[in-house]
Amino acid sequence: ALRQGSDLEKAFATVALVYNNNADSKGKLSRAETKSLLQTQFWHFIQGQENKPKYQEIISDLDEEPENKTDFEDFMMILVMLTLMSDLLQEIKNVKTSK
């Protein structure tokens, strides 16, 4: 559907596709599934973040409320928070691309 889309559109479409492929029939993930998906699909961004208080807060929230489900909007917010605190983000900012 996005063959002609921009790189950013394709990136968000990929996130939506990965989320939907793992979500239940109501379009939600259990907290454990959310944590697992982040650890397997977002590993390079969260690597080395384990000692940061904000990371620990995010992960402990996933552990402490197992009965709650994560919807796509909440999942995207978690991705944004983890991206902003990631050491990898600084490396990405330092990369210059030619246009």
TrEMBL record:
> According to the lineage, what is the superkingdom?
Eukaryota
Pfam families recorded: S_100
| Domain S100/CaBP-9k-type calcium binding subdomain per the UniProt entry, residue ranges | 8-47
Q: Which InterPro entries match?
A: EF-hand-dom_pair, S-100_dom, S100_Ca-bd_sub
Q: Which Gene3D superfamilies match?
A: EF-hand
A GO molecular-function annotation: transition metal ion binding
Q: What are the transmembrane regions?
A: none
How is this protein named in the record?
A: SNTAN protein
